[in-house]
Structure formats: structure tokens, C-alpha cells
Write a structure and sequence with these properties.
The chain contains eleven helices and 15 strands. By secondary structure, it is α/β, with parallel strands linked by helices. The chain has a seven-stranded mixed beta sheet with strand order 2-8-7-6-5-3-4, with helices on both faces. A four-stranded antiparallel beta sheet has the order 11-12-15-14. The chain has a two-stranded parallel sheet with strand order 1-13. Helix 2 runs antiparallel to helix 8, helix 3 runs parallel beside helix 8 and helix 4 packs parallel to helix 5. Bound molecules: D-malate. The site of D-malate has 7 residues, from loops.
């Protein structure tokens, strides 16, 4: 063929981080079929969907089986019942967003990647280490990316100190993936003020908001001024076990505009053209997941995972290993022992304890020397991992 390809793809790493770790785990298991690998690597849930969700989805399947209640294409931004329920969910923690500012989709990862479509050639400000999708989707578009270094010194919560005041698209994830660190209200206010002053946009990823146990903001829209400079992307993947079921949303406030163009209008146009909505059955499941009863059940799952996090954190405390996360986040970000590099520790742990985590360096250069463990495993697997680590570290 003589077609031109998107040359920017050549600037990406050879493979996506989680595909690479999965490949190494498969390779190890193929060579060592008698060894049981415990995966605390990708942040994928292990508990099944809850009772409320399952019964709502069963009912929806029955509706789809009857010609009087069957439904075809779903509305591109979600059925009104779901958009209203999401708005209502926000109100339970004191945030006001209107249903028509909520755009439902099949995942936060998709929205994070797709939203780049509606912006021009802006400079991108990304914390390092970072969820790889922010970085990769901007590399794919050939954007100029500036990294802000997170480190042990700033508790892996970088601030805009010393950053030139010009318009950027800024990515913030809190509670953070991969580090589990959480921004306080005061810190997020500084970011919002910086965005307002510099004419920037913040894309705020709140996928882990349900894990906040202490007094931290669960939405960027808790912060004054945020409606003029922020978009929020949230998901039911980690909140209600929807990693395989797929339902998320993006909140675009009506106030948000660049010049005289409303950002909500652009996003609506993009979605209407390229997205055909989430299946009715899934939307019914999502509705149940954020209903008062469904949310209570979901929080029992969150508590179960946080019990795992506590078990991991206690081991690290006993061993005197530095870490962040694990209190308001399902991720634990630890400093590799004995000065090991991230991938070195990954191989060492796999080889000696058959435990798989995610190397910090895979999330960016500033992640070198760190390692991420998730609390999404089963309790049994987590306890077995701790037993192995207790002997090894
Ligand atoms: C992770 O392990 O970081 C997450 O599972 C990735 C994701 O949510 O896409």
C-alpha cells in the first residue's frame, strides 16, 4: 500500500504497559507451569456484580426479549434516567451538576483517549508518573507534552509551582493511578486557580473517588471556579465492578468555553458522530449501581478491597518500606527495596515469590525505582501474597 500512516504512532513505546506486563507473566507461567502466579498487577476487579445490578440487568434483558419493550440504538449520551441518576449521585456528596452536562460512555479510558479529538494543538501538562492513556493518546496526536515530576519529596502530588503561565491541557487524577496519593481541597484549589489564570483546561480523572474514606474532594466540582476550567471523567469500573460491563461518564459544564465555543457542544457533536451509546441492559445495571441500595452494596465491595490494601500496607509498615496510597485508594505505590529498579523488582518478585505487580517505570521516568500493587485481588490471594512477601523481604 502507498497510504500514509499516522507517524506519531512511531513515537509510542512498543506496547501498552498492561499488555507488556501481561505478556511477561504469560511467558513466566508457560516456562513454570507448576508455579501459581498471584496477580496484583492490572487494576481489575475480582468480585462479581452486586445483587441489585444483576437483577436490574436480568429485567432489562427480559424487556429486550419483548417486542413492546425492546429498544434499538440508545441515545448517544445515555438515557435520561441514567443522566439524571448520575446527577443525583453527585448531589449525595454535595456537588451540583445538571443531567445535560453528563455524557455517558463505555469507559473512562475511552473518554480520556477520545476527548483529545475536540482540542487543537495545545501544550499538554502531565504529571509523571501517570496513567499511560493520558500520555499515549496525546503522543498519537503529536502534541507537545510537558511533564511535571512527582516524587517522594512532594508525596507524588506535584503542584504548578514554577510552571510557566500559559494555556495547557492539564491532566489530574485523584485519588491517583498509579500512586494512590490524593490531593487535598487546598491543593486542588491551587490547580484550579492556576488553570483560571493561565487559560488552561483541567481534565480531572475521578475514577477512584469511591475509595476516598477521609476528608478529600471526590469531584473537582467541589472546588470553587472549577466549572470555568474543568472536565471530569468518572467510571463505574472500580466503584461497582464494571471493568467488564463498561459504563462511565464525562461531565462537561455548560460554562466551559474556549473563545465563543462551548466545549459541551463540541463533545456532544463528537460523541453523536463516533459513538452509539451504551447498551440499554448496561445502563439499567448502572442505574441500579448508583441507586441507594446498589451503592451500599458497591461500597461493601470497596471495603473488601480496602481490607486487602490494609493487609498490604501493614506488611510494608512491618518491613519499613516507604509507600503512598492504600488508605483512600486501592493502589499501593512502594519504593523498591534494596535500591532495585522497577523492572528489576518486577522480575525478581515474579521469579522468587510468583507475585506480579506493575513496575513504576512503566508509568513514566519518575516512577523508576517504584512499584505498584493493587488491592483488587481476592482476600485469599492477597493473604497468600503477603505470606510469600513476609518470608522474602
Ligand atoms: C490500571 O491497572 O491502571 C487500570 O486497570 C487501568 C484502567 O483502568 O484502564
Amino acid at each position: 500500500m502507498k497510504i500514509n500512516i499516522n507517524e506519531n504512532y512511531k513515537n509510542l513505546k512498543e506496547s501498552y504497559l498492561f499488555s507488556e506486563t501481561a505478556r511477561r507473566i504469560r511467558e513466566y507461567s508457560a516456562k513454570n507451569p507448576d508455579k501459581k502466579v498471584i496477580k496484583l498487577s492490572i487494576g481489575d476487579v475480582t468480585l462479581p456484580l452486586t445483587k441489585s445490578v444483576i437483577s436490574a440487568m436480568h429485567e432489562a434483558v427480559d424487556e429486550m426479549a419483548d417486542k413492546d419493550t425492546f429498544r434499538g440504538y440508545a441515545p448517544e449520551y445515555g438515557y435520561d434516567f441514567l443522566r439524571e441518576a448520575v446527577a443525583n449521585y453527585y448531589s449525595t456528596f454535595g456537588v451540583t451538576v445538571a443531567p445535560d452536562e453528563i455524557f455517558c460512555s463505555d469507559g473512562a479510558k475511552s473518554d480520556v483517549g477520545n476527548i483529545t479529538d475536540i482540542f487543537g494543538d495545545n501544550e499538554i501538562l502531565i504529571p509523571d508518573p501517570v496513567y499511560p492513556v493520558y500520555m499515549d493518546s496525546n503522543i498519537m496526536n503529536g502534541r507537545k507534552i510537558t511533564l511535571i515530576k512527582a516524587s517522594e519529596e512532594n508525596g507524588f502530588l506535584p503542584m504548578p509551582d514554577g510552571i510557566a503561565e500559559k494555556p495547557y491541557i492539564i491532566y489530574i487524577c485523584s485519588p491517583n493511578n498509579p500512586t494512590g496519593a490524593v490531593y487535598s481541597r487546598e491543593q486542588l484549589k491551587i490547580w484550579v486557580d492556576f488553570a483560571l489564570k493561565s487559560g488552561s483546561l483541567i481534565i480531572f480523572d475521578s475514577a477512584y473517588e469511591a475509595y476516598i474514606k477521609e476528608d478529600y474532594p471526590r469531584s473537582i466540582f467541589e472546588i470553587e471556579g472549577s466549572r470555568e476550567c474543568c472536565i471530569e471523567i468518572c467510571s463505574l469500573s472500580k466503584t461497582a465492578g464494571f471493568t467488564g460491563t463498561r459504563c462511565a461518564w464525562t461531565v462537561v459544564p455548560q460554562e466551559l468555553s474556549a473563545g465563543d465555543t462551548k466545549i459541551a457542544k463540541l463533545w456532544a457533536r463528537r460523541q453523536a458522530t463516533k459513538f452509539n451509546g451504551i447498551p440499554y441492559v448496561v445502563q439499567k445495571g448502572a442505574l441500579a449501581a448508583i441507586s441507594p441500595e446498589g451503592h451500599k452494596e458497591a461500597m461493601e465491595c470497596v471495603d473488601y478491597y480496602m481490607g486487602n490494601a490494609k493487609i498490604i500496607a501493614e506488611l510494608l509498615d512491618r518491613k519499613g518500606i516507604w509507600y503512598t496510597g492504600g488508605i483512600n485508594s486501592p493502589y499501593i505505590w512502594l519504593k523498591c527495596p534494596n535500591g532495585m529498579g522497577s523492572w528489576e523488582f518486577f522480575d525478581w518478585l515474579l521469579e522468587n515469590a510468583q507475585i506480579a505487580g506493575t513496575p513504576g517505570a512503566g508509568f513514566g521516568e519518575a516512577g523508576e525505582g517504584f512499584f505498584r500493587l493493587t488491592s483488587f485481588g481476592s482476600r485469599e490471594a492477597t493473604l497468600e501474597a503477603i505470606e510469600r512477601l513476609e518470608k522474602l523481604l
